[in-house]
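Allow me, if you will, to draw on your knowledge of protein folds for a short while. I have a record of one protein: its chain in single-letter code and its fold written as discrete structure tokens. Could you please explain, in whatever detail you think fit, how the structure tokens follow from the sequence? The record follows directly beneath this note:
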Amino acid sequence: ACNRTRYVQHNGVLVVNSTVSSQVLNASGVTSVEACAMLCGMKSCSAAVFWKSSGLCQLVTVSREPGFAGNNEWRLLGSETAEAVVMKLENFEELMKPRIINVTRVFTNNGTGRIGSVQLVTIDIAGCYRIELAGAKGGDNTYVSPDKLGGRGALAAGNVSLSVGVQLSIVVGQAG
């Protein structure tokens, strides 16, 4: 018996998370939902959207490998109206579990004084990176008064999309 790919209809808009690299191929002139699903199976896609009025079949493929050179952006597939029929693999949710590669790099001071030296890191996998920074504790000024203690240092964090080859310059200083 043939191993047949099974697609199920999805109600509403289907969301593909930005941590999953995905690509959309548009096929025009498709005559039915069934034909769109069959085309999707032939192209090994994970989901498809059939637009009834235009006969457009959007085939969605996702990367199964980290670092795939696809589009790292949120995809909203279909519409809330009956104009679009969204189909997905039976195990779509299992496939879409975020493929996040957790890499933690901790930079420490490698110099003396408050300024440290520049440390370089080159990005070798394109994607969304979370960068967390912690400022050093400020220096105490106990010469003026015993209660003039330095501040704790600030914390900052953010997500940034980085491409392969981007080089970051990191400077780690010391507490004041």
About this structure: Residues 118-171 form one domain. The longest strand covers residues 127-134.
